[in-house]
Amino acid sequence: MNGVPGRATLLRDLEPVIEQRLERHLRTAQRWDPSAYVRPELYWGQRRSSLTETAKAALITTLLTHNNTALADPARELSTSSPAWAEWSAVWSDEKRGHADAIQRYLVDTRSVDSVALDRARVQCTTIGIESSMEGDNFLRSIVHSTIDVMATMVSHRNTAVECADPVAEHLLERIVSDQARHVAFFSDVVEGALRFAPAETLKAITEVLMNFQLPGSGLVGFERSAMLLARDGIYDLRQHLDDVLLPAVRMWRIFDRSVVDPSDRNFRILSDFLDDIEVQATTFEQLRIRARARDAARLRAS
Question: Cα 243–213–56 angle (5° rounding)?
Answer without folding.
Answer: 75
